[in-house]
Amino acid sequence: MTASSKSLYAVAARPGPALAGPGGRPGRPAGSAEGIVSSLSSRAATPPLLAVRDVRIRHAPTGRELVRGVSFDLAPGRVVGIVGESGSGKTLTCRAALGILPRHLELSGGSIVLAGEDVTTFDEDRWTRERGSTLAAVFQDPASYLNPSLPVGSQVAEVLRVKTGLRRREARSRTLELFASVHLRDPDVVYGQYPFELSGGMLQRVLIAAAVSAGPRILVADEATTALDVTVQAEILDLLADLREGSGLSLVVVSHDLAVVAQLCDEVLVMRHGEVVEQGQTDRVLHRPEHEYTRLLLAEHDQFGLDRVLEGRAS
Ligand SMILES: Nc1ncnc2c1ncn2[C@@H]1O[C@H](COP(=O)(O)OP(=O)(O)OP(=O)(O)O)[C@@H](O)[C@H]1O
């Protein structure tokens, strides 16, 4: 992403998706049109907030396809996970849904429907309106989305003023509420602190507060806990689960770590080399993986950590 787009305002101004796909049968990607249609009909009562269909992303200068045929639905209040090794296409898939594909990359096939509307019809003004209010995102490395020379509270308040039209005093008080809601202790103190004074976990909470400040329906969390130590990572995952429970937020959670996905997600896509190799209910994928690569991911994972997560889900 460009330096100018990598700002707190840009983060809050970015939206995202979810999935419902059948299990990956050997020899065919689980996100096949047939599987998606049967999955959709079983949930016909709840139209997806985000419907990603057979999405393909191409590097325009070379014609190389970086993402090939990703499909999923995100229903209200659901959590879809995308897992896979580095370079498998997780981030680009999310960026396509957020309307922030890097330069030279283009949606070369398929469709993305956000709240019933095809996003390919959106111009930049429309994206600006949707980001923050319909969907938002948080990424790894929260510090890089904040201005180091301004207190974090005033940066979030500024996002609120721009996105919701609140006046200065109201924006300050709403920011303090948001800080409390993301479990930042002493919101008043944090409000006046600079990014360098906060830990990685606190910075990510600030970013989450900014992302949800305009009440989006979808939050994309792309490796949002990757840089954090295990305890803080668990706290941020709990926070995301709280947001889902408390406000019915739908989440797309991207991680290379199966344990992260296992804790939060209803459904999971396993990606490799730009393709979905397996897709289905998280419990099914974790307990009865059908694709060799999913089995490899499970086997490679720290056994203790994943076993604990699986026990937790079973109880
Ligand atoms: N701006 C870009 N220009 C050209 N190729 C790119 C660009 N961004 C990503 N790619 C390529 O697209 C493929 C998918 O990248 P993507 O970032 O989606 O992977 P990922 O699964 O999110 O990996 P990671 O976990 O490392 O972020 C990779 O081969 C990557 O090198």
From TrEMBL:
Residues 15-35 are annotated as: Disordered. The keyword Nucleotide-binding applies. SMART domains: AAA. It comes from Nostocoides japonicum T1-X7. GO terms for molecular function: ATP binding; ATP hydrolysis activity. It is a peripheral membrane protein. It is found in: Cell membrane. This is D-ala-D-ala transporter subunit ATP-binding component of ABC superfamily. One of its GO terms (cellular component) is plasma membrane. Residues 52-298 form the ABC transporter domain. Keywords: ATP-binding, Cell inner membrane, Cell membrane, Membrane, Nucleotide-binding, Translocase, Transport. The gene is ddpD. Its main location: membrane. Belongs to the ABC transporter superfamily. Pfam families: ABC_tran. The lineage of its organism: Bacteria, Bacillati, Actinomycetota, Actinomycetes, Micrococcales. The keyword Lyase does not apply.
